[in-house]
Amino acid sequence: MDAGEIAGLIAAGAFLMLVLFLAVPILKLGKTVDAATRAINELNDRTGPLLADVNQTVDHVNTALGQVQVSLDGVNVQLAKVDTMTSHAQNITASVANLVTVVSAAAANPLIKVASFGYGLRKAAAARRRAEDERDVRATLKQRRKAARAAR
Question: Taking the complete model, does pTM exceed 0.85, yes or no?
Answer without folding.
Answer: no
